[in-house]
Amino acid sequence: MSRRPANRKQIKKEIAWSVISSVIFAFVGTITYFLWKNNLTAIYLDPSHIGYWYLPASLMIMMLIHETYYYWLHRAMHIPQIYKRAHKVHHQSLSPSPWTAFSFHPWESILEAVIVPLILIFLPVNVYVLLFYLIFMTFSSVINHLDIEIYPEFFRKSWIGKLCIDATHHHYHHKKFITNYGLHFTFWDRWMGTESKKV
Ligand SMILES: [Zn+2]
Ligand SMILES: [Zn+2]
């Protein structure tokens, strides 16, 4: 884990970038709402519409599509020309802090957010499942940038814990730059040989 606490100047910058990111995310949220209200998405209201079994299944499908998009987007953002324009801001934090979680250049915020409405145009998702996922994503991003581990050791060592990204995993992305690109899960990094071993 990091021995260099984030300094005040870095935190101030991260807060400013996070405010801009929040505005962009809210804007994409508004567009999604507009699409939903005009019947241009597959979002549905009644949880029993497809079946209750589909609620966790749709959450998993949405997460796997999002994971795949994010992993490859993240790798593309490490190509030097793209990195300079879109991703450098996020990596100004060599020691991540909770403020780093949403410290993105506007290009990165747009590229990250746009996948959610795109998924919702094709994949039927209950509105409550969607809200749950948005809240889950917010918390998990903060947790992964805490720079301290909050998950219990027995969970981290279990097979499911090894599949999930935690603060240690993402810490290595900020430290080494060329490993650990994943969002929620470790499988793409494993398959592509880009995983730093968890400690
Ligand atoms: Zn990165
Ligand atoms: Zn990060």
| Rg (C-alpha, Å) | 17 Å
What is the succession of H and E elements?
A: HEHHHHEHHHHH
For the largest beta-sheet, the strand count, sense and barrel status come to: 2 strands, parallel
Mean pLDDT: 93
Q: How many domains in all?
A: 1
Which runs of at least 5 residues are low in confidence (pLDDT < 50)?
A: none
* Structure summary, number of beta strands: 2
Give a list of the ligands: zinc ion
Distance between the termini: 9 Å
Helix run count: 10
Helix share, percent: 55-70%
Task: Output the structural class.
Answer: mainly alpha
Q: Largest sheet, order of strands side by side? A: 1-2
General form:
globular
Q: Determine the strand fraction and express it as a percent band.
A: under 5%
Short recap of the structure:
By secondary structure, the protein is mainly α. The chain has one domain (8-149).
Characteristic key phrases:
199 residues; mainly alpha; two-stranded parallel sheet; 10 helices; 2 strands; globular; binds zinc ion
